[in-house]
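We emphasize that the prediction below concerns an isolated chain of 506 residues; any contacts that depend on oligomerization or on bound cofactors are therefore not represented. The input was used exactly as deposited, without trimming of termini.
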Amino acid sequence: MTVTLNSCTLSGIEPFLVKVEVDLSNGLPRCQIVGLPDSAVQEAGERVRSAIKNSGYDFPIRRMTINLAPADIRKEGSGFDLSMALGILAASYQLPEGSFSDFLVVGELGLNGSIRPVPGVVAMASVIQRIGLKKMIVPVENLQEALAFPDLEVWPVASIQDAVLIALESRAPVKETISWAPDESYPLDFEEVKGQEHAKRSLEIAAAGNHNLILIGPPGSGKTMLAERLPGILPPFTFGECLEVSKIQSVAGVLRKEEGLSRRRPIRAPHVSMSYAGMVGGSSSLRPGELSLAHRGVLFMDELPEFHRDVLESLRQPLEEKRVTVVRLSGSITYPADFLFVGAMNPCPCGFYGDFYQNCVCRPTDRLHYRRRLSGPLMDRIDLHVEVTRLTYEKLYHPEKPESSRQIKKRVVKAREVQLSRFGKVEITNSKMNQKGLEKYCKLSPEAQELLKRAYEKLYFSARGHGKILKIARTIADLADSKTIEVLHLAEALQYRVLDRNLLHE
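Result of the prediction step, given as a token string:
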């Protein structure tokens, strides 16, 4: 007898329906799994056998073939265990005929028959309705992920016995639904940062237009403190962005399962020892890396020149194209990587070049070598270059209370609303304008046009740098609620681009 159940596999973050076909026939007792399985799937036979026997059911002593169709897609992970076990029970007439034919079944088995969580349930649940199914069996720990989809009937199971009760119609689906709302709380606030008004302003512009930036200053000047507070002024999640981020985090195994969905924009801060594969994703299973885990959030890289050269250069594609392609022997995957990049660095190896309070001890060649660790093409892709200076004693003990993140966020959200009415899509911001957008929306006043001409001829900007100046000026004008880019807006934008000439490339 042949029984077919539905399960799911992932290619990157994209789910694919897998038909689990179980056939029992006469012959020497043997369990063979076919359909391009990886080693984890190949080992499922022993896990399934022990789980069925230890759950009080009979494991058939017959020739058994389990096919995972379609056969040309590689099957990875342990999520097929439960569907295989239920298929074997149905094929050996221990379950009613037709059991689970209209279900999507995922779950890893323990040897005692318990069911363990699997990654990627958010992605799997998002595709189930497109393939004509409405019922899903998931491990108990994955329940909140599946409940994010209100039209889906979900049965959580902790053991094989729980799943068998579903076939006997002794268990009803969970009726609970989770109400989705973005989490706008953030533990770090800009009102804790004394002084640094210039740097705070640059972070506000970065958040308003989704512009990448780099903070340059001596140790202890507050670069990390500023960058860590950036997510607190970003606009709230939309439901679509939440699903995108939750799918990536679920596949990577970093989603908090008790919440079901990620309700707060992510911030990722990889260590300087991060490898190329850890940054872009990959390994044997083509899992997403830090670039994709920061999708719709912030990627903060402290001590930027200390990262390996190949890791730094891996930023070039996602900063420009908002995606990253991972190629390995097992295949090729493209992940989304639309993040707000924030880098932080010292101006020289000792950290005190240009500091008013401590002399730099580096040789000119040492400073030049240090700064050239960041290539010209990479720096050209970073919109804002910001100097962060050491605080004076007076500013550190200034009695005036700094602006809170809530106050800054109001202006950021208002500027984003202007961009939404301009472009019609929440994911398109000023930083993503194409050439047609620059010509249509970046109208300069005559005085601003003359200033841009003089700056272009004197500072030798590239064509990409010229476009970024216009985008930054457009964001500054949006924050000022101005339809035209005036000379003050352009002048402020220009001061955020000169550092890559007079500081980083002496």
